[in-house]
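Lecture notes, structural biology module. Today: joint structure prediction for complexes of two components.
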Amino acid sequence: MGKLQIINYNGWETVKSSELAVSPIFQNTLRARITQKLACNICVTGEPGIGKSYQAIDIARVYEGIYKSKASGEIKGRFKENQIVFTHSDYLSLLIWLKMGKGIIFDEPSYAMGKRDWYKDLQKVLVHTMESQRFLVHPLWIPIINMALLDKTIRSYLVQFQIHVIGRGHAWVYRLKPSQSNEKIYREFMCELFYHQFDSHLCSKDSCLGCKTLNSCQVFRAQYERKKRTTQFERYEQAKDDALKKESSELTERQIEEILMPDILKLINEKTGKISVGRLRVYLRNHEPPIMLSTWKAYQIKGNLEHAHPEIFEES
Amino acid sequence: MSEDLKALGDLSTENLMALFPEAKLTMRDRLPTPLLLLYTFLNINKALSNIKISAEEIGESILGLVAMIPDELRDDLFYEELENAKQEILVDVRPEFGQVKASEEYCERKGILAFQRLQHLNYFEMYHAVFNLLMRKHMLLKIQPKEIFTGVPFTTEEDEE
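The predicted structure, tokenised, for the full assembly:
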């Protein structure tokens, strides 16, 4: 049988055997494409929780490589956690300062976002990547559950590679080639990937979830988990606000009147002795949760209150 | 034959190509070598299971298969294995007297050849050599390329020290 040889690839340990066809074939292809200034949009697919994001991160880390700091002797990676983005705005700000040839991971676009929102975001990101290929070359990884979630034009023509993750660190790579004469997409099998858990020499735990040292850990995957957690909480907050707004918009007139009744005197205009629509709207906007009313509805509620409690207005 | 062709004398492919510069070989003009090899293999396998076909005929087919393999594909190991397929067999040619073979001493004393050395080709060894060659040239099995990363930085012995 063929002899396996351990070699250095961008500072990482890899295995090579020409007889067994074991070599960093995908990394070499990626590197060659980037050298030729060709687009590299890669979809990482797989079931939820299988390790799509980790697979994408590992590939990106190998692609950019590691080096030994001369001053401290510490091993540092060129791929940083701020190259992993979750929103379109983050992606664009990254394009401004990121050096040519550096990779970007647009992580979990479908996560905690409305389908339409991430769909638009992703479309914009891919179009920007295609445009930036002319002068900035950035390989882009998109971990996504299924390629069918992408727009047909994007999945057919803008994606060059598909990495289908079938197990932890185990994936199949396909080269996607659209036909130039019809709508067919040719999916050529390229190679199989085996990426063992990265940084196992620094941390032997298989997951950061539930780890007590997550907040202070400097292992790359912990940094990523922290960033992801922050983004998730931001999204939860946003989703909560949206939900409250939606719930408040569905309040009936009677419910809104009940909210207004305790402070109704504050809403009365001293000059006219009637309810000020402006004060009413501001009061509801500052309410917790905020209630946004249209002018028409505000007048409707004003009329209701004045009709239902004439004694209050007569007194004032 | 036209005057131009007569002038060329030697009708080699190069000369003909020079005569027709617009001519260009395409994929369609090429012989489908894998298909030819496949047909030959299938024919040999059919012959092996057919009792009407003699061992000599099968041997001839295998020789034909060996002849089809171009020199560029052949390697040293292939020639070594072909050499190993050549075998010498000893045939007992001692005379018989009353259904009893004459002894070796008798033959030696009388100057009679007792054993004859015959060159023999083991066709199945040749067939095996062809398979080994195709295997070495990655023509039999499609080996799935793999990329393996251990996830740890590469260190040399000096680094460890």
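Point to remember: The CA atoms of residues 96 and 102 of chain B lie 6 Å apart.
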